[in-house]
Design brief:
With 203 residues, the chain is mainly α. It has one domain. The chain is built from 12 helices and no strands. Helix 3 packs across helix 6 and helix 4 packs parallel to helix 10. The longest helix has 17 residues.
């Protein structure tokens, strides 16, 4: 996969990301119903927690154990989490009832950034996977919530091999399309696709 990433970098080198990669015009459009752009990440993590909450003690104990275990330690209850993915996405969709296009765009933007920030060869060495498989692995990390996400961001060995969550990667974009008939454009200048974060892949 590293060779494929080098090829991708050669095509993307002409379009560097400026600053933090955020388009201020898009940020201005997400000021809706009192939601401030600076709070969108907190909002995402709160929605994720609220979506997991009704899925029961066994699921949530297993999810929290992900961030509490030692780096590289296996998680016995991983099948419980994998089996709860469909229920989680249904619960998250319910949590998003009534959200507007700008609000769904804001949330998609945060997911895009979270996936981009952990796009690295170091993490891929732990999770494995093709381009799509590695994207789905990062989707799993986001879907498990803030605690696990930042544990992995600090130490790639906290990640779980062969654990993916495809639906999380474009969840808010697909929800926007389903409800309003169009996919949101984040306007960020970054991509959540694998090998997009040039800083994460050695030359």
């Amino acid at each position: 996969m590293a060779a494929q990433c080098r090829q991708l970098r050669s095509f993307r080198a002409g379009s560097p990301v400026g600053g933090d990669g955020y388009d201020l015009a898009v940020a201005a459009r997400v000021i809706s119903r009192g939601i401030q752009a600076a709070d969108n990440e907190t909002w995402l993590w709160e929605l994720v927690e609220a979506a997991w909450a009704p899925l029961g003690a066994e699921v949530n104990v297993a999810r929290r154990a992900l961030a509490a275990r030692r780096p590289g330690e296996q998680l016995e209850k991983l099948p419980v989490l994998k089996g709860a993915r469909e229920a989680f996405t249904a619960s998250l969709a319910s949590q998003c009832h009534g959200l507007t296009v700008p609000e769904l765009t804001a949330l998609d933007r945060v997911v895009e950034r979270k996936l981009y920030d952990i796009d690295s060869a170091e993490l891929h060495a732990v999770t494995g996977g093709s381009d799509d498989g590695f994207l789905y692995a990062r989707g799993f990390i986001v879907a498990m919530g803030r605690g696990f996400y930042y544990a992995v961001a600090a130490d790639a060995l906290m990640a779980v091999p062969r654990a993916g969550f495809e639906d999380m990667c474009y969840f808010f974009a697909h929800l926007c399309h389903e409800r309003y008939g169009s996919f949101p454009g984040t306007g960020s200048g970054i991509s959540r696709e694998s090998c997009s974060n040039l800083a994460g892949w050695p030359r």
